[in-house]
Amino acid sequence: MEAEIVITGNVGADVAWRDHDEHGGRASFSLACTPGVQRDGIWVDLPTAWYRVVCWRRLAANVRDSVAKGDAVIVGGRLRLDRWSDEAGYPREGYTVEAAWVAHDLRRGASTFRRVGARSTPTAPSVEPGAGEAGEFGDVTAAPFRQLAIQAH
Which DSSP helix (H) or strand (E) runs through 84? Predict the structure, then answer.
């Protein structure tokens, strides 16, 4: 049985990319989740939990092209506990989320969506000619949309 979760947090480091023959590509990043609670009318941060997020195939390429250190994201996928021994032989463990989807957390900022075409390989550039220009629906990056950013807490 696998645990399916949805988790929010901040990307802790730049996305790491690896070409992968069998799966097209792999993107991974660390995710910091710092829950907050209100005590006596003051918000207090609880200890930060760190997760490793792994993405495959087309999702991996889109994450590589769209997500950066510090971004607020929401991740959905399968949670697993990994166990290993470090260089000194000490047992270690950590949580990994194999992502089914990744999205910017629009409660905490604004984002612009850019549709990408079918790719022959995940390493192909994701920016299409004319991306970000006004199309048949006008300029979707206009100021009113950018003003939708919401501050956390």
Answer: strand 72-85
Residue 135: per-residue pLDDT = 38
Instruction: For residues 75 and 95, give the distance between their C-alpha atoms in angstroms, rounded to a whole number.
Output: 13
Find how far residue 140's CA is from the centre of its chain: 22
> CA 104 to CA 62: how far, in whole Å?
12
Q: How far is CA 134 from CA 114, 129, 142, in A?
A: 12, 12, 10
26, 6 contact by CB (below 8 A): no
Instruction: Supply the DSSP symbol for 138.
Output: B
> In sequence order, what are the residues at sequence separation of 6 or more whose Cβ sits closer than 8 angstroms to the Cβ of residue 115?
none
DSSP letter assigned to residue 145: H
Which tens digits make up the pLDDT trace of 66-81?
Answer: 999 999 999 999 999 9
144 forms beta bridges with none
CB atoms within 10 A of CB 60: 24
